[in-house]
Amino acid sequence: MRITLCLTANKPEPWQAGLRAALPQADVDIWQPGAPAAPADYAVVWAPPQAFIDAQPGLRALFNIGAGVDALLPLRLPPSLRVVRLDDAGMSVQMAEYVCHALIRHFREFDGYEADARAGRWSYRKPRERADWPVGIMGLGVLGERVARAVGAFEFPVHGWSRTPKRIEGVVCHHGADGLDGFLAQCRVLVNLLPLTPETENLLDRHTLGRLQPGAVLINVARGGHVVDEDLLALLDCGHLAGATLDVFRTEPLPADHPFWHHPRITVTPHTAARTLRAESIAQIAHKIAALERGDPIAGVVDPARGY
Ligand SMILES: NC(=O)c1ccc[n+]([C@@H]2O[C@H](COP(=O)([O-])OP(=O)(O)OC[C@H]3O[C@@H](n4cnc5c(N)ncnc54)[C@H](OP(=O)(O)O)[C@@H]3O)[C@@H](O)[C@H]2O)c1
Asked: What is the mean pLDDT of residues 49-64?
């Protein structure tokens, strides 16, 4: 069995060593553009170029080292090729930390306390009612459900929105295009955890964000392509939105002249909410390759028609 690696943003050598240790029977190569490549059975990839896919027509599965596969689906892939995403692999707890931190920072006005402390001011803010801060999670998949449970543990009212109906204890679940307006109208804090697909691209525009409760906060941890940047800025500037915490952007790294960097009510982090953890990811991929070799089914196979 041969595995080939094409990791455009990561050093491939530690992945090669980890996969060799986990699957000693496998030959594990690193793809070199332009060099002849031995035909592989499996590929482990991050944002591979089309040339890589074209050079490996015999692949049985393509393992993406992230949860979002939006960079893969525009490629011309053989119809029979299975695309497999990471299922959690240590990401969901990181996502829960990130979102709860951002939510609590806004709710408890910690930025204001920090400014007071810098100015040597001892001043209290009036406690806020949790009931006035319902949190909506868009996307109730592997990450969204974990985040919904973490937010619920802090006793915020929690709403969720997904494509198909769900039942999650402690979460008021909404679904489908028909359920979107009702969901948004319930939310003071909106957490985006949708995959980027043709249906969800540009979904967060002046109409949808405008339906949130006044003084709302956006936490975008999914993809930059979900948000219409100018509409977000307009809603912050007119005061309908009180703040935004953004981890993902249309262009990454966020260009130096982008207005998000210096907006007083936007916090920017560099796509770091839930990082790929190498050891967990290698263990999961090795486990799935072993299952495929035995002919067993695996979780996390992407449906190309749905786009996630
Ligand atoms: N910032 C970071 O560091 C970071 C790290 C990892 C992942 N991410 C992002 O997080 C995203 C979510 O990851 P995940 O593992 O939770 O994905 P997932 O398990 O595939 O879940 C996706 C959820 O979105 C819902 N959904 C998809 N299309 C929809 C639509 N048109 N309308 C309503 N709901 C829709 C799905 O509904 P159903 O349940 O009905 O199918 C599902 O609940 C990834 O795609 C990636 O972009 C970001």
From this structure: 96
